[in-house]
Amino acid sequence: MATRLVQINMKAHDDAALGRFWAEVLGWGIDSEAPGVTNLEPVGFDYPDPVAVCIDIVASQEPKTGKNRVHLDLASTSAEHQAELVARLKELGATVADVGQGDVPWTVMADPEGNEFCVLDPHPLNMDTGPIAAVVVDCADPREMARFWGGAIDWKLYEVDDDHAVMRSAQGVGPYLEFHRSPDTKNGWNRVHLDISPYKGDDPAAEEARLRALGATDTGIDPSAISWTVLADTEGNEFCLLSPR
Fold this sequence. Notes:
Layout: E1 3-12, H1 15-26, E2 29-34, E3 37-41, E4 54-59, E5 70-74, H2 79-92, E6 95-96, E7 107-110, E8 116-119, E9 132-139, H3 142-152, E10 156-160, E11 164-168, E12 176-181, E13 192-198, H4 204-214, E14 217-218, E15 229-232, E16 238-241
Parallel strand pairs: 1-4, 5-8, 9-12, 13-16
Antiparallel strand pairs: 1-13, 2-3, 3-4, 5-9, 6-7, 7-8, 10-11, 11-12, 14-15, 15-16
């Protein structure tokens, strides 16, 4: 049994407006499964497929406090493309952000609701990922996160050390999932989190039990009000176990 990363969930004061921004950035289509929810995925995409990690933007009036612990890295194909992408993002409403990164070859930006993301400098590993090069999670212990998430999902672990861990789908397509060591501590609920799903035909209860055996914990969410399960990883980052897909 196993699960796979299928999407990220992003909270927003205005889900429709933020959805339009990210759809323009990524060149993706927009849909909505319910009021207050904006779904983004590549045009013609057959969900779920590891070639892309989709985005659900969900309305929430909770304020953003501090830097997000989960963010997106956008791919570029050349120095010229990186500069053009940064310029286009500014026109769409993004701003350059300072999160203490210092002098780095990538550009840190924030979307119109302040969610941080990076526009990466060109790198051979990111040439076949699609517009999202990586989903990045800040953490205290990348080795422990690699252990937990390596058991939670069926993605392949490419590298791990004391400062970072890198995973990618078992099919070797789509964006990477990266865990970067950070001195920042988790403060409140994450405004951006991971959503995982069992494979079609698998038992969700068995998957939940397996995740708990790996170290997942409760978050205090009333399970009777939702059709999915909200858990937290070993560093307290919330994630959702969706229905089998």
